[in-house]
Amino acid sequence: MTLTLSVVGCGYLGVTHAACMSSLGFTVVGVDIDPEKVALLQAGKLPFYEPGLDTLLEQELKTGRLSFTTDFSLVKDADIHFVCVGTPQVTDGLAADLTYVKSAVATIAPYLKDGSLVVGKSTVPVGTAQALRDELAKIAPQADLAWNPEFLREGFAVEDTLTPNRLVVGVANDRAEEILKEVYEPVIALGTPWIRADLPTSELVKVAANSFLATKISFINAMAEVCEAAGGDVTVLAKAIGYDPRIGNRFLQAGIGFGGGCLPKDVRAFMARAEELGAMQALEFLREIDAINLRARQRVIDIVRKVLSEDLTQYKIAVLGATFKPDSDDVRDSPALDISVQLHAAGAEVVIHDPQGIEPARKRFPNLKYSEVIEDAIKDADLILHLTEWKEYRQIDPAGISSLVKGKIIIDGRNMLDRTLWRSAGWKFHALGRTD
Ligand code: UDX
């Protein structure tokens, strides 16, 4: 008999998981407390931008296997309940806010049928899964709880869900593992490595992976700082060390650093949890990772002041990119937007372009100026900042836009533009970690 699934929380993770699981042939009900979001999803529309997910959502709704609701009682037929709610940073500290995870489990508890399995996918501080399992044993002893961390990247959400580079399950017994193996059977059949762990290890795998990625980015950004001081070129350095397979060339792109809804908050929540556990010394280095990351934003502003003037009040700066990375409309903790806000606060006239992120950025910072058209954003600008590496920006013809701007100066905050091309068109070209 085919399993019936519920997905609790229809954000980025939840919608992707629900649509992907439906595409594997399961009946899936997605539940969320937000009626607007649910109405959009029922109509086949995504509340965010994610390449490929829009068509998958439409396709799966048509099969009749996938549905969305605000009525939590409709999870009652499900054999497995995937908890996909957010765990944002608390407003008054570094820790993760577990309100939504706790309330999701408490809300579905009365509807859990005999033998059903609750599977957490949200990123949580180690120890959360065991605490939730203990709680469930009291309020819904007929059900069990497991953890199955998610490693999807925005922009590659569907691919990362259907063809992940590994599946990690945190389980307390064989039965929970067997149920999860049944769900992921088509993914396992592709040769995907399957890792069974205990509950705490499965939670730690996720934050360890994100901390490692953050460390790699901050490492190369620290090298960029040294290159700037020593007259070196971090892009050449990254290429050279990346050929060593023990190091690898991915995630060594120096620039304005990491942002988004995961890396920054996961690193901070990991430190907060380690402190509670008395293991802070082991993660002391993550403080430095966070500091290097935030410093990269400041370094761009320093270059702007150096090439324009300490006083920015008379200058127009065009910013290319608002999202935390390309192929996403996510502006959470976006380095590009943070830099824009700081330049605006320093008195510069800032106009931001982004292919997908203008509306979410405007919602957060309504006082900034935005433009849907690159040419309008850069018109009469004294300087252009390239802060999110959308493909569109690499296609700009520097000679073609020369007559639009007041000053032919560009700072590449992502080390992705063709420096020779820009310079040969008469532009002053600056980048992080490259002194030449
Ligand atoms: C990340 C993890 O990659 C994913 O496995 C996890 O499930 C969620 O968090 P995501 O937030 O989508 O995914 O973004 P990612 O592609 O990891 O990029 C994070 C940030 O690092 C972006 O702001 C990106 O611009 C920056 N970055 C990435 C760099 O500055 N340099 C690099 O070399 C790589």
Molecular structure report:
The model has no long low-confidence stretch (mean pLDDT 97). The protein is of the alpha/beta class and 436 residues long. The chain has two domains: 4-197, Rossmann fold (3-Layer(aba) Sandwich); 290-431, Rossmann fold (3-Layer(aba) Sandwich). It has 18 helices and 14 strands. The chain is globular. 44% of the residues lie in helices and 14% in strands. It has a six-stranded parallel β-sheet with strand order 3-2-1-4-5-6, sandwiched between helices. A six-stranded parallel β-sheet has the order 11-10-9-12-13-14. Residues 150-154, 210, 213, 217, 251-253, 255, 257-260, 262-263, 324-325 line the site of uridine-5'-diphosphate-xylopyranose (UDX).
